[in-house]
Amino acid sequence: MEAIIELLPELNKAFFETVYMVAIALFVAILFGLPLGILLFVTEKDLFLENPILKSIVDVVVNLIRSIPFIILLVALLPFTKWITGTTIGPTAASVSLSVAAIPFFARIVESSIRDIEKGVIEAAIAAGATPWMIIKDVILSEAKPAMIKGVTITTVSLIGYSAMAGIVGGGGIGDLAIRFGYYRYDNTVMLTTVVVLICLVQLIQFAGDRMARVVDKKS
């Protein structure tokens, strides 16, 4: 118990570092992953922006990044991270790799969410003379909103797990704390404490995301 009390300042700092890097990565993932996911869907065959070449290129890029284990991606992106942030350590640097990993992850979730929309709804909008932008804005985004909110929740939870790995290369956050104070010092109390904090954070995010999805779901 005494060890945990002494660790509280470090734990508090690590917690906010984790929240900071996850928030940045989530913002970037939504900013780029949302239009990318929509693009993956609307450029398919028989859809209103059909473009097989563009679809194939985006598919390959997304699959390529998603197929790389995060720890390898983290190390591979160190030169790019240093170019962007000027450093390769700390939560800001870690957020670069987290963002790169999160964009294709969220894009696939968006694409999957849109596929759940009944084709007849989109076909009706096309028959009514709606422009592609109107279909995306008023039909696709509106109908897929609950599923996308769940997708944001899944992405956030995954990013928390990835952020713990960032501690291996000095990325900061709870993962870094667990490695420095728990693993290297063979302190099981510290390891258990960090795990409990991460579990509580994940449960809170999952609860909030599920609640928000139910609120915006027109069918519920």
Automatic annotation (TrEMBL):
It is found in: Cell membrane. One of its GO terms (cellular component) is plasma membrane. Pfam families: BPD_transp_1. Residues 15-207 form the ABC transmembrane type-1 domain. The chain crosses the membrane at residues 20-42, 54-77, 83-107, 147-169, 189-209. CDD domains: TM_PBP2. PROSITE patterns: ABC_TM1 (PS50928). It is a multi-pass membrane protein. SUPFAM superfamilies: MetI-like. Keywords: Cell membrane, Membrane, Transmembrane, Transmembrane helix, Transport. GO terms for biological process: D-methionine transmembrane transport. NCBIfam families: PRK10782.1. Belongs to the binding-protein-dependent transport system permease family. CysTW subfamily. This is ABC transporter permease. It comes from Alteribacter keqinensis.
